[in-house]
Structures are given as structure tokens and as C-alpha cells.
Write a structure and sequence with these properties.
single chain, about 425 residues, mainly alpha, two-stranded antiparallel sheet, about 55% helix
Length: about 425
């Protein structure tokens, strides 16, 4: 089954039991060398090649963990693996010394080091995944649910401390300077509900009224701004998928009945466009002439480009907040297929969150494309989003049945690898 093959690729290729994290890509088929490209201590300490760790293979560990946690509870997946993913998120949220700051990831080669710049999207998926574990994954150990609740409170407390008018509503970097892609308020329309989402999750985790009041304070203006969004002008699959996560949490938590109609309207409107985007991406995938399983290269050997947002308005400074934001440019032989898998998955998830049904014609075309891919050869995390989209949109009518044998296999692996530590 396609879903089983993808789940195995994530577990055996991208996931590292030592850190509990799912990395962005591997550069070798040798299990002992698959993460050799990850940054060393000196590179992380120097924020090379940029303070986000963009392109290094550990920029989206928090996003991947949250996405997979949302996938696992939907399929009744391995609770021990889910617990280990929460342990990985705990590492990202506490190990750096600023409790509640969601680091993007930690390198296998320097397991106590992380880059200084997180992002609004890393935080969104960490919160969403932890909330799903807390509320919808009864099979995980009680200690894991307690840990998830504590982490949600830490994240909310960090936001309250740092996301202030004085800081331009920015999460800030670990060095205390303003961070790129980290504004939580007075931001773009599709980002306007991230902050109330964080506080609503903390209220769900703790029952402490202060977090409910914080969520209420930002919710109404956030909804009003979100309603101004024009899908075609704002479209990019990852941020819009993360907008849907914030909408879903605020809608499903049950704390804001007065806002549910508007939230449903926003979900439905974006969901319709998700179907259109899926159709366009599927056409690209059908015409893709290359190999789906090409591995990425060592980022140090790639050419680099400067991140546009880090260049001053007059074009005469590229050291934004004292740091260079240079990003490796991946070879198209890897980038194109991995991006197509990610876009297919995000489009499916966006569509499903808006309660749109996948048309039969698109379903058959999608299954035909995916049936030709040997997912065991794929080396990138586009598969994480693809699996999430397939499960969320219920592309296969017997999704639950097809995971039974695979779940047993992964439970055996879990017990052998790290079950005793839970």
C-alpha cells in the first residue's frame, strides 16, 4: 500500500531515534551516513549559513513532528512513536535554555545545539501536534499527555513574554534580536490567527483562565483580518496549510462558539482553492520527467542565494540584525520531485480541512501518479506532508485497515528501540 510505504520511508529514512526528530532530507542511502550532512557545532554556533538553518537538513524538524503527530492519531498509529516525537519537541522547546522557544531542530552531530531563529510556522505545527496528542490520542502514555500540556503552557508563556508591541510582536531570536518570519501579530492575513491559537491551546492544556482571556483578546481582530485574505494573492502551500491548522484548532477546541460560523467560512473558502491547487500540482506531477528518488546534495557544495527579506530596502546591506541569511540552492533533480510531493500533500490537507471532497477524477489521477513512485528511494520530507494529506483527505477508503500490519511492525520497532525509556 502507498501509505504504508510512505510511513516506512519516514520512519526508516528521515526519523532519528537518538534525537526524536524527523529531518528534512538525507544525502546517503547508507544508514550510518544518512545524516552526515547535518551541521557541526561550529556551524550552528556561528549561525552558518543563516540563523534559521535553512537548507541544512534540520530547518523543519518541528513542522515535521507536528505534521506526523496529526497523521498518527488519525490512523491509530504507534503511540510509542508519538511519545518519542513529543520527546523530540521537548528537546526543541527546552534544551536551548529559553523555555517555550520552538527551535527548528537539533543536529545529530551537535545534539545540544540549535540555530537562533525559529519561525511562526515551526511554532504553529509544534502547538498543533501537541494539542492533538493532548486531546485526541488516548493511546499515548499519560506521561506524554502531561508533557504535551506542560510544553503548550511554556510556548504560550514565551509568546506572552516576547510577542509585545515593544518587540514589534516578534518571537525574537535566541540572541534577543528580531527574527525573520517570526511576527505573530500585525502580520499577513493568513498569519493573523496564529497567536490566539497558541493561547487557546494553552487553555486547553491547563484550564488556566488567563490563556483563554489572551486568546479572546486576539481572536476577533484576527478573524476580521483573515477574512480579508484573497487566496490567489496569498497562495503558497505551506503557509496556507498552516493557516488551516490554526483555524482547525480554534474551531475544534469548542471555546469560541460565537466565532464558529466565521471559522467555518474561512476553512471552506480556502478549501475550495485547495482543490484547484491540487489539480494544477497534479498536472505538473503527471508531466514530471525525472526520477522521484534522487537524493539531495551536501548543502555546503551548493551555490547560495541571499534571502530577499534580509536585504535592506536600499539594497546596500545584507547583514540583517547582524547576521547573513544565505540559503543553499538545491539541485532541481531533488528539489522538483520533493516539492511536488509536498504540494500534493498540503493541497489535500487544505482541501480536507475545508470539508471539500476529492473529485473521483482527481483521485484516480493521483493514485496513478503515486503508484509509480518507489517511496523507499525518496530522501526528502515532502513525503511527510503527502502522507498527512492522504490520511486527512481519506484518499483510500480502507485507510484504517491498511495500517494494521504496519502499525504492528512499528510497535515492535518502538519497543525494541526506545520503549523502555518511556
Amino acid at each position: 500500500m502507498i501509505q504504508n510505504a510512505i510511513l516506512r520511508q519516514i520512519r526508516e529514512t528521515l526519523f532519528c531515534p537518538e534525537t526524536g526528530l524527523i529531518y528534512d532530507y538525507v544525502t546517503s542511502r547508507d544508514p550510518a551516513r544518512r545524516f552526515a550532512h547535518l551541521p557541526c557545532r561550529a556551524e550552528v554556533e556561528a549561525n552558518l549559513p543563516n540563523p534559521c538553518g535553512w537548507g541544512t537538513g534540520m530547518e523543519d524538524c518541528a513542522i515535521n513532528a507536528g505534521t506526523l503527530l496529526d497523521t498518527l492519531w488519525r490512523i491509530g498509529g504507534d503511540p510509542l512513536w508519538a511519545a518519542h516525537l513529543v520527546d523530540g519537541l521537548e528537546r526543541c522547546i527546552t534544551l536551548h535554555g529559553r523555555d517555550g522557544f520552538v527551535a527548528r531542530g537539533f543536529s545529530v552531530r551537535a545534539p545540544e545545539m540549535c540555530y537562533s531563529n525559529s519561525s511562526r510556522d515551526q511554532l504553529t505545527l509544534a502547538v498543533y501536534g501537541l494539542w492533538r496528542v493532548l486531546r485526541f490520542f488516548p493511546a499515548v502514555p499519560d506521561s506524554t499527555r502531561e508533557k504535551a500540556a506542560g510544553l503548550l503552557r511554556l510556548i504560550a508563556a514565551d509568546c506572552r513574554a516576547h510577542v509585545t508591541r515593544e518587540n514589534h510582536f516578534n518571537l525574537l531570536r535566541l540572541d534577543g534580536r528580531e527574527a525573520l518570519v517570526s511576527k505573530m501579530w500585525e502580520c499577513d492575513d493568513h498569519e493573523a490567527l496564529r497567536l490566539p491559537m497558541v493561547y487557546a491551546a494553552a487553555f486547553a492544556a491547563t484550564g488556566e483562565r488567563e490563556w483563554f482571556e489572551e486568546a479572546k483578546r486576539f481572536l476577533a481582530p484576527g478573524i476580521e483580518q483573515s477574512c480579508r485574505m484573497r487566496n490567489r494573492d496569498s497562495w503558497w502551500d505551506l503557509p496556507i496549510a498552516q493557516m488551516q491548522f490554526s483555524l482547525l484548532l480554534l474551531r475544534e477546541c469548542g471555546f469560541f462558539p460565537e466565532a464558529e460560523a466565521k471559522l467555518d467560512q474561512l476553512l471552506a473558502g480556502t478549501g475550495v482553492f485547495g482543490v484547484e491547487h491540487l489539480a494544477a500540482t497534479l498536472s505538473e506531477a503527471e508531466q514530471f520527467p525525472g526520477t522521484w528518488g534522487t537524493l539531495n546534495e551536501n548543502w555546503r557544495r551548493c551555490r547560495f542565494s541571499l534571502h530577499q527579506d534580509s536585504i535592506s530596502d536600499n539594497g546596500f546591506c545584507v547583514a540583517w540584525q547582524g547576521s547573513l541569511y544565505a540559503t543553499p540552492v538545491f539541485p532541481l533533480s531533488y528539489l522538483v520531485p520533493n516539492t511536488l510531493l509536498r504540494r500534493l500533500g498540503c493541497s489535500l490537507a487544505i482541501m480536507a480541512a475545508g470539508h471539500q471532497v476529492l473529485p473521483d477524477e482527481l483521485r484516480h489521477r493521483l493514485e496513478k501518479v503515486l503508484s509509480k513512485i518507489d517511496f523507499s528511494r525518496c530522501g526528502g520530507d515532502g513525503t511527510v506532508k503527502l502522507l498527512h494529506g492522504l490520511v486527512t483527505a481519506k484518499v483510500s477508503c480502507n485507510t484504517e485497515d491498511m495500517f494494521i500490519k504496519e502499525r504492528m511492525h512499528h510497535e515492535e520497532l518502538s519497543a525494541a528501540c526506545f520503549g523502555a525509556n518511556l
